[in-house]
Design a protein that fits this description.
alpha/beta, 7 strands, binds 2-acetamido-2-deoxy-beta-D-glucopyranose, 310 residues, Rossmann fold, globular, 44% helix, five-stranded parallel beta sheet, 12 helices
């Protein structure tokens, strides 16, 4: 399974996100998360899928070295973002029975690893489709209203920061793997199809009271470890075609976001461009002091050769 190590980029994106919230820390009472493995904090533990990460070495750098169901060695991006806003240190998964509505008042995660904008993507590994994440969110709103009262709940819902991060699986686990979508859509048409779903998703969230949204576009998906490992004829460099597809998708997503910002009252949606940051990290890891162990010694990873990653 693909592990998407984008938390570092996300940590940098905090700055961008702070700009969308625009105001002091205490104006974000909660962080609410939708998406895939890049932000899932453990929902897949509780559903009937093979796509889980509740075993070691996942979580080895998390508190207590616990594999929580985050597809990561430690915390995932929303955890860092919530901490930066002074909200809380970790965003709990909605389906985790260790947490109650009392914990969710300040933030909750509905994300599910392996999901996508396309219903057919979540079907591949039997994970939570995006429409179902919204159903859980509606259920959450009802519980929140019962718990803190109508007025306070409305305030939390409208002032909360919503983080949305998905799309990679639509291309890499669905479109390029199975013939079904390729038979019906060119890549460009499939991008439009996904952006249309994202557009509806934003409208739905807005109609439910959400106002501050950060939507993360695609990272250089052609540089993910499995893509490079299988790029035998490309000398294990990044898959340039996949990266191009990601950039095109991001451009369409950004256009949609600026459109809905104009159309929907009080909406402040931000397109979080993770592509450039991740690409930079991949291109010059030494600048970020990223190291690996070689013959038992910690060694900073050298920058890639000119033109190797394009
Ligand atoms: C995805 O499935 C849900 C539930 O069946 C449905 O309401 C929705 O229209 C579907 N989305 C698309 C884009 O087909």
């Amino acid at each position: 399974m693909r592990l998407i190590y984008i938390w570092l980029a996300w940590a940098i994106l905090i700055t961008q996100v702070i700009m969308v919230a625009c105001k002091p820390r205490n104006n974000v009472p909660a962080v609410i998360v939708f998406g895939d493995s890049s932000v899932d904090s453990g929902n897949n533990n509780k559903i009937a899928t093979l796509l889980k990460s509740n075993f070691k070495p996942y979580g080895r750098d998390f508190e207590g070295g616990r594999p929580t169901g985050r597809f990561c060695n430690g915390r995932v991006p929303p955890d860092f973002i919530a901490e930066a806003f002074g909200v809380k240190k970790n965003i709990p998964a909605y389906l985790d029975p260790a947490y109650t509505i009392d914990d969710f008042v300040t933030g909750v995660c509905f994300a599910s690893a392996g999901t996508g904008y396309d219903n057919a993507t979540s079907d591949v590994l039997n994970v939570i489709p995006l429409w179902k994440e919204i159903e859980f969110y509606k259920e959450y709103q009802a519980k929140l209203r019962a718990h803190v009262g109508e007025e306070k709940a409305n305030e939390i819902i409208s002032e909360a920061l919503y983080l949305i991060s998905l799309g990679t699986n639509d291309f890499l686990e669905n479109y390029y793997i199975f013939p079904t979508r390729q038979l019906h859509f060119t890549v460009s048409q499939y991008q439009d199809f996904l952006v249309d779903i994202a557009d509806n998703f934003v409208r739905k969230l807005h109609s439910l009271g959400a106002r501050k949204l950060s939507i993360t576009g695609l990272v250089p998906i052609g540089c993910l470890p499995l893509e490079r490992a299988t790029n035998i004829f490309g000398d294990h460099g990044c898959n340039k075609n996949y990266n191009k597809v990601a950039l095109q998708f991001n451009a369409k997503l950004e256009k949609m976001i600026s459109k809905v910002n104009k159309e929907l009252p009080q909406l402040k949606a931000l397109s979080a461009n993770a592509y450039d940051i991740v690409f930079d990290i991949i291109s010059r890891p030494s600048f970020y002091e990223i190291s690996h162990k070689k013959n038992g010694n910690e060694e900073v990873i050298g920058d890639v050769k000119d033109g190797f990653v394009e």
